[in-house]
């Protein structure tokens, strides 16, 4: 995918295809024609160009698409974790888009995070229409099977039709709702950089052993558990049997902590994050007249001054002593006025407010440090949970693989034990067929011999054989074709012709005087002609008599049964041991799954607890900041209440504002 900008400043996304798709142009034309009739905001414009790019002198197609400023679904989720309202709104928009697709009778074919873009205003855009189904493409095969983490196990066997997205619809909607209800699920179930939301194809392949699925199905939020159970059930059904997405009418979520009050002119989500604009300074509280205290203070200071002066004269001290006495008198006068100022109600109120402000400031600093410490603890916990989730997933995969290898090894070993029995049974069957064939061949041989004995050799029956040769043959017991089987030649001495020998029926060969090569060939052809006629006789046996056949069959059947009994005993032993092994593995898997579920549950509760504590501490911090600001504002109201002003009033009688 490339971004290009035209000379006119128009920006497009350009896709180059890496594989040949049958009828690609026809498919895109059908999709374009159908989408053109739809008014929905989630679609993007595109233009299929069959000769859009040239490489090494050869043209290839491209797809030019409208450029959209948006981010993929996973990036958007990571940027809005904790913003429940935004996540629920996106889930609602997704359900509306799914409803649009269903009403239009179309399916995207590959609904997943990479093909769902979210714009800055929170709207959805659907991209990549390579595998989209529209009614005009009915009857054609699918060109792809979708992202593996968003499809049920049976997707590869499903047809190409409007129900392609049904599982993906439920999965994505459920994931968005679950994350909005419990953000810790993202940290515990989503692997950083993973090509999935909360669940993977491994979780769909074996729902009963999936730790992720178990954590979701047993979640304390009822809607999460119910939707997870439904998704787990849908993963076991064919796509054609899945229902359309039915979004939740209401979302039941445990009540969140009370948020900081929204400030005028700000949206609710900014409450607690923006310092409130301070109102105008408060009306200053003036220093009261306090005529009696002022007069009493004046008199006291005057009396102390006179008494000090008289004391200095009376003791007739030096000038230096008088200076010291004057200074002492002034100090006593100031202390007296200061003591009087401490009794003023305005000063008491100002001092109390100042003490409260200092205390609130200390508490604010402590709350800020506590919040930062909790956030660090949460980050460490989330990192640990993520590592633990990856380790748990790896552990479960290793366990499944080990158990699969264990079963495979068991099957191979037990199959090897059964192989000799199967081979023995096949050998028995082969021997049975051989005995039947041999018995039939013997019957046929007896018939042929009987037939051949009917033809007695006489002079003139065979070319070149007269009375003398017939007599010589008879002398060796050869009177019919049944009396010999073949003619062979034995090499003679140097320069001598080969000697002809006739092979008798019982296997011995004889040399008959007067039978040379020519007569031997004639005898052989004479026998072969009678043998051919014998094999064509209608009386030639073609099957064993039923009694003989049953005798042979019964004998070998008993041998087969004996072997089969032994084999069945091994099979039964194998089956019982395999059941025991499967039960042992299931128990092991259950223990491991329960352990992982407990760990996931503990991690989820711990994450919820620390998030709750952070939220409470943030609210407390904001409240302390507000309290500190309110106290500071109250303190500003007493900015004209001071000892200096009081002293000027005592000495001068007036106080400037």
Give the tags.
657 residues; alpha+beta; four-stranded antiparallel β-sheet; three-stranded antiparallel β-sheet; 57% helix; 8% strand; elongated
Brief characterization of the structure:
The protein is 57% helix and 8% strand.
Note down, in words, how this protein is organized:
This is Protein kinase domain-containing protein. The protein has 657 residues and is α+β, with helices and mostly antiparallel strands. Helix content is 57%, strand content 8%. Helix 3 (84-104) packs antiparallel against helix 4, helix 9 packs antiparallel against helix 10 and helix 9 crosses helix 15. The protein is elongated, with a radius of gyration of 54 Å.
Rounded mean pLDDT is 81
Task: Report the sheet-strand fraction.
Answer: 5-15%
What are the secondary-structure elements, in order, as H or E? Answer: EEHEEEHHEEHHHHHHHHHEEEHHH
Tell me the number of helical segments per DSSP (H or I, 4 or more residues long). 15
SS class: alpha+beta
- Uncertain stretches: 253-277
What helical percentage do the residues reach? Answer: 55-70%
Extended strand count: 10
**How large is the radius of gyration?**
54 Å
Report the span from N to C terminus. Answer: 73 Å
- Give the strand line-up of the largest sheet: 1-2-4-3
Q: Tell me about the biggest sheet?
A: 4 strands, antiparallel
| General shape | elongated
Keywords: Coiled coil, Membrane, Transmembrane, Transmembrane helix
InterPro entries: Kinase-like_dom_sf, Prot_kinase_dom
Organism: Nonomuraea purpurea
Coiled coil: 572-627
